[in-house]
Design a protein that fits this description.
102 residues; alpha+beta; 3-stranded antiparallel β-sheet; globular
């Protein structure tokens, strides 16, 4: 399944990439965060979760020499969505999600 096929007209992708995890109805291997929702998808299946489902967001830093920041987003699943990356990019993503989810 192609991400472009899942987007609504005018919907903006903030970040997308590989994702490994289970959701309410199965396993997914890709995640896109748009200005409206989370899109979990794989070859023939997709699930959408509105940004309004964000219950909590926390950030932690990992690594001794090479720092990686981890954003944990709780959307009411068993485990939070974990997004890792460059500290400044992850902080910017958190700020964007926070402003869009209110």
């Amino acid at each position: 399944m192609n991400l472009d096929d899942l987007l609504e007209p005018g919907e903006e992708v903030i970040v997308s990439g590989n994702y490994s995890g289970n959701l309410f109805d199965g396993e997914y291997d890709k995640l896109a965060v748009t200005d409206q929702r989370f899109i979990f998808y794989k070859k023939k299946k997709s699930t959408f979760v509105p940004l309004s489902n964000i219950e909590n967001m926390t950030i932690e830093e990992k690594g001794t020499f090479s720092k990686t920041r981890v954003l944990n987003v709780d959307i009411g699943m068993e485990e939070p969505i974990e997004m890792k990356g460059d500290p400044s990019r992850v902080k910017a993503l958190q700020s964007k999600l926070y402003s869009l989810s209110k």
